[in-house]
Each structure stands twice: as structure tokens, then as C-alpha cells.
Amino acid sequence: MEGAKCFVKTDAGDLIKDAKEVLSVHEKDLVSTDDMTKLDQLHESIILHNIRERFKNGIIYTYIGPMLISVNPYREIAELGVQLIPDFRTKEKEDLPPHLFYIAQRAYQNLLNFQKSQSVVISGESGSGKTEATKIVLKFLTIASERSPTEDLDIAAMIIATNPILEAFGNAKTTRNDNSSRFGKFIKICFDGPQITGAMIDNYLLEKTRIVKQAATERNYHIFYQIIAGMTPEQKEKYKIVSDYYYLTNGLVDVPKIDDKKNWEETVNAFKVLGFKDEEFDNVFYLLSAILSLGNIKFSEENDKASIPDQSSLSTFCDLMGLSSTFGVVKQSLLARKVRIAGRTSISFVPLTLVQAETNRDALSKRLYFDLFNWLISKLNTQLKGKSTEESLFIGVLDIYGFEIFQHNSLEQFCINYANERLHNQFNDHMFKAEQEEYTKEGVPWTNIEYNDNSRCIDLIEKSRNSIINIIQEQCRVEGKTDKNLLEEIKKIRSPYLDLGHPSDPPDQFKIRHFAGTVIYSIESWMEKNKDTLNVDLEVLLKKSTNPIVASFFADAA
Ligand SMILES: Nc1ncnc2c1ncn2[C@@H]1O[C@H](COP(=O)(O)OP(=O)(O)OP(=O)(O)O)[C@@H](O)[C@H]1O
Ligand SMILES: [Mg+2]
Questions:
Q1: Cα 490 to Cα 455, 498, 512, 515, 537, distances in angstroms
Q2: Which CATH class is domain 290-377+535-553?
Q3: Measured from the CB, is residue 73 less than 6 Å from ligand 1?
């Protein structure tokens, strides 16, 4: 150190820095440690140094008190496998290296000792390894816990089998992660004493737009590619699968690290383990094929009026949905909007433009896939219920979509990042606020810990009356409002977490300073995505589908 300057040695060479930018470290804290609460000093630099040094030595796990930090190794580490589970059941924490198994073991032991449900919350940005960590925790719980000798269903195998199904239907390749979760899940493993009795999955907000459109290097949901790579020619004929689908052409289809054929086999096997009937399996795949053929319906336009010059895909769609007898009405509902003239009993049809017809078609595809996903979850829950009840104690594992910053961020990233803000806030409340309040109450001396409180960012997004979510809802209620109007209203909010940018920035953007970084959001299509309405005529028609799964989605349509 020399005056106000500091000489810093780094792997990339020596640097000269302002002394105030540099944090000091005790030499003894530079030694790798399993639990960072043992360090004399604890700040960002020393945490990063410790994790980096351990990672260089192939160690991906580090404790920080009751929490575990896990670094994505992007490779299988055989020494960290299931053979360690017996050790984690019997030995003390201090006698074993840090591992996710310990987190799972503690949850299990606490459930048994205190007779209270437990939760494991996994957070991190997109691609950091949350879903893989969830699977490791589930593996531990299903292997380590006891089984009822009289149980005829293998609930443990069924719990593990939910992974391929949920990933096939709810995960997709994004620019950040080849297997990115596009929905959030909270899976509860229910217990009666030490025995697993069943499980329950809650799911949150599947990303819908991906079904009809993907960014240039992203993909649609894995299941579509699995169908094409894995189905036999006979199956393809049965479900009317062809080789070219418009909904699958936007993204880069071939991903070297994904083996769609192998994954298809796993998905099919998981359907069997989970006890889906052949008829249910058929109905799921007739529906998926119908969604793909719906996407292949092309419109043309003359005098602002859309038409369907080639009706083969529409005909396939109607066949697959069991709607062939109403082909003409389905076609009309895709091309026109029914209007009842006030004071008259007659109904007239307003023709849709090409853009409106495409929006109408895509809204139907999104709704069908979204409802199918929810149907699958409720079916899984029926199968997994076993002997569990509402009162059963459980260990819950939370795995949501991670924080995202893309080049183009839309309403989906806004929702995902909002969910992550809430999770971060929950963490702050639990780890810092509540803990420090407890110290104060009990008169324990302690040094106040400064933490990044994101409550005001949450106010900006949701809490206050003048929040972004409220503004979106208000604007969507008013006829004729556009994305531009929405942005103008958002820009009126005054918050240190809202960055209105520079006058030279593109006019269709705003920025939010999230806890994990500043994200530039583009306002295009927010109003349409939020309204997400489906033509009522289509709903009424689909209620008559001979596919019972589809008919159940629209049971309330009138
Ligand atoms: N413990 C691990 N061992 C080996 N590979 C891993 C591990 N964790 C993650 N990976 C690799 O990283 C990829 C991304 O991990 P994962 O899908 O779990 O991320 P995520 O945090 O769930 O992301 P998202 O928020 O996008 O869903 C995995 O497909 C896998 O290749
Ligand atoms: Mg994930």
C-alpha cells in the first residue's frame, strides 16, 4: 500500500487501485474453509476468494452457517454421488465434507425431532444449478427415508419420475441454460413419522409465449423435440406428427448437449411409472400434435380480411381434437369475431385482419398448452397422493426460475425477476431482520449487519398503489390503451429503483435496478401478453372436443 493507492496481485497481472476500493483480508482467512462463518472477516471479496479456491480444487459446496453455497460444476462429480447417503444418515456434520445431502438430512431430522414441516429454498440466477440441486435433495429424501412395508405403490420411484415429465413439459433451452425451468415449483414430500406417504406439487406461472415464439437461439418446450426425435414411424402416423412445424422453427433446433431421443424414452417411462393410462397418454399426445398443427395454419389477407388458403393443417387440427364435424365453425372462429348488436337478437361476424387472426390462433395454442401443463400437475398430484393428507408433515423443496437478464427482456423476465426479488426479500427477512430483532429482544450484544434491503424495489413492482403491476392492470382495463401509454405511465413513477435512462436510449424501454443487477425491459407486447384473452367462441367449441382432457379445460365455457 502506498498513500491512497494499493498494488494488487491478481491472476491476470498486477493492478494499481484506489485504497478505498480495496478490502483488507487477514492472511489466515485466505485458507480454504468448509464453513465461512469460521472466518474472522466476512465480506464479498473473502467469500468469493474462498469459493473460487475451493472450486479450483474440485470442491463445489461450502457452508455459511445453516446455508449451503453450491457452485455449478457443469460436469458429473462421481465422488459426490448417492454412495455418500448412508454416511450423511449416521455421521456428524463436522466429520463430512459440505454437501446438499446434509441440508436434506437436517430437514428430515428436524421434521422427526420437532414434528414440524420443513422447507429447503434453493435460489440462484438462471443456469446456476437449482433444478439439479432439487433433484439431489429429492434423491436423498427418497433413498434415506423409510418405506412402509405394506405400501403397494412405490411413491419414492414416482417422486423421482416426476422430474423427466416436468422437465419435458416445463423446461426449454434459453440463451443462459439448455434446460431452463420456465415455471416455478414447490414439491412437498409428505411423511408419517419417518416414512414417506406421498407428495404434492404446487406450480407457478408457466411461461406461455414460448409455445408460439422463441428467440433466435432458444427452443420451444423439450417435449416437442422429443416427440420428433423419439416417436416411432407408427406413433407418428397415429398422432399425425409431420417433420416441419412453424412453432419449432424460430429457435435453433439442434442442441449438441441435449439427446431428445434418450429423453423421450425417459419421459415415456416416467408416464408408465406414474401410472398414466394408455388412453390418457394418447390424449396428451393428440393434443400436443394438435397444438403443432394449429401453428401450421397460415393466413393470407385481402382487404384487411384474413383467410386460410390451405386448409390441410386446420383439418388435421380438427381431426386431432375430435372437432371434424364442426370444421366450418372452427374455421369461422379463427377468422372472425362474433358480435351481438345491441337491441337485436341477430349476431354478426366481424372479420379479423391477418395479424388479428394470427394472435387469435396463438392465444388458443398458448391456452391449450398452459391448461395441459396444469392438468399434468394435477394428475401427478392425484398419483402421488398415496396416504398423505392435508395435515401430513412435509419437507418442501422450492425450485423457481432464476433471475434473468437477456438482451431482450419482456413481461416474462419482469415476472421471473419479481419472483426472485420476493424470494430474496424473504431471505433477508429470515436471515437478517428477524434474527437481529430477536437479538435486540433478548438483549444479546451484536454488531448490526448491513444488508441489501430490496423492499423498496418490491414496492416499485407491486406493493404501492402506484406500482408497475397496478399500472399494468389499470391500463389493461381501459379500452384502446397501448404499450406506449403503459410506458408513459410507468415513467411517471418516482423510485430510486426505476431508472428512466438517458434521452438517447431507445424510447420503448425502462430499467429496474434489481438486487441482482439492472435489467432493461422492452415494453413491446406487454398489454397483449397481460390481457391474454381467448375468443369465447373458440372456448365454447372446444368444450365439445372428443378429447376429454381438452373438454375439461373448457367445461365452464358458455
Ligand atoms: N450439481 C451439478 N452437477 C453437474 N452439473 C450441474 C450441476 N448443477 C448444474 N449443472 C449443469 O448446469 C445446467 C443448469 O443447471 P439447472 O438447470 O439446475 O439450473 P437452474 O438454476 O435450475 O436454472 P433455471 O433458473 O434456468 O431453471 C444443468 O443442465 C447441468 O448441465
Ligand atoms: Mg431450473
A1: 19, 9, 11, 20, 34
A2: mainly alpha
A3: yes
